[in-house]
């Protein structure tokens, strides 16, 4: 079945972002309310949108804490290096 958005936005292989909820993937009907977040994420309900917001905020908080920890270690390593101590560095892999 062709997407009802294809008639407005042209045909494409990828589904339009207004076709389904970004969290639960529930189909978004033309006559239903759509709850938007960050301009390009559509949700079927306030609850789905709030869950995504909470998830994003937790992820951003984790990144800030991780970045703060890395800056602290880098600062300590610079002090140790300046004091003539041996400094070992590691590799951080972020997915």
TrEMBL record:
Residues 74-95 are annotated as: Disordered. Keywords: Metal-binding, Zinc, Zinc-finger. The keyword S-adenosyl-L-methionine does not apply. PROSITE patterns: ZF_FLZ (PS51795). Signal peptide: none annotated. A zinc finger (FLZ-type) spans 16-60. InterPro entries: FLZ1/2/3 (IPR044533), Zf-FLZ_dom (IPR007650). Residues 16-60 form the FLZ-type domain. One of its GO terms (molecular function) is zinc ion binding. It comes from the Eukaryota. Belongs to the FLZ family. This is FCS-Like Zinc finger 3.
């Amino acid at each position: 079945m062709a997407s009802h958005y294809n008639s407005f936005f042209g045909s494409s292989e990828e589904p339009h972002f207004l076709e389904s909820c970004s969290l639960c993937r529930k189909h978004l009907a033309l006559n239903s309310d759509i709850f938007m977040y960050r301009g390009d994420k559509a949700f079927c309900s306030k609850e789905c949108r709030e869950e995504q917001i909470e998830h994003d905020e937790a992820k951003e908080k984790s990144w800030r804490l991780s970045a703060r920890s890395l800056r602290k270690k880098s600062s300590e390593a610079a002090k140790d290096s300046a004091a003539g101590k041996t400094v070992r560095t590691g590799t951080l892999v972020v997915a």
